[in-house]
Amino acid sequence: MLGESGLNFLLVFNPNAGAGRARRLLPGVESGLQRFGRVTTLQTEAKGHATSLVAESGLSEFDAIVAAGGDGTLFEVLNGLYRHEKGQRKPLGLVPVGTGNAFARDLGLLPGKWQQGVELIGANRTEWVDVGRVTTQQTRFHFLNIVGAGLPVDAMKTAAHLKLLGNSAYSIATLWQALRLKSYPLRLVLDGEPLDRDSMFVEVSNTRYTGTTFLIAPAAKLDDGLLDVTLVSRLPRMRLLRLFPSIYSGQHVNYPEVMTRQVREIRIEAPEGLVLAPDGELYGNSPATITCLPRDLEIFC
H helices within 168-226, ranges in order? Predict the structure, then answer.
């Protein structure tokens, strides 16, 4: 928990979140946070801008960083924060105003309820949570929610054209791509144990939800020091149609075609060049090593 006096917030706001609908919410977000302290607002202008804004900011003058946008904005702010040494990082708050707000669900924030995000920050309660770290041959980055490969990447590319549909865009895109029954010859190493499996996708979760509404990893916890791995083997189309609705409730984990594991580290070795999808973004390629950093970040929750 931070001090009881008014806080000095650095608000990183994405006006293009929610297919541009977030722009009109900025005055409300600012006035809401101003009830709890001082607010310095930086607006993002392009993809990747939030990372550079936070990375280049002198954090010593602020008490907290607030990311206002969707999962992609949170991902960028997080990675800007991790450009600073651990002792310089400030607690991170989230105001969900984007299309996809999967991480917000684990904080009890429902889609569109951005005021609840402001109130959660104003309550001034923080906890230390796990962070995922991804290391590839080209780069290193961090995530709070999830990183996937295979179907999640295909679905995200399709959902990008459906953002006007709001929160349903990712669900529709995922079902559309799943019905193509495309699979990938994955070679994984789970805490040192090799595994080869032809799968539709692999998801590595730090939290329970993906795409806001899919309860992909029902056993995941933010502070257990573990990442939850979900693998879905290729299956017939009718079987897929029966399985698909169960993802909303987390019951898909009971299907024999679905394998789950809890690990501290997973390596995706093959196929090489497989695109990764962390926290609503397309970033990085296999081979990749994904590691849990236990209780490495302080967040408002």
Answer: 169-178
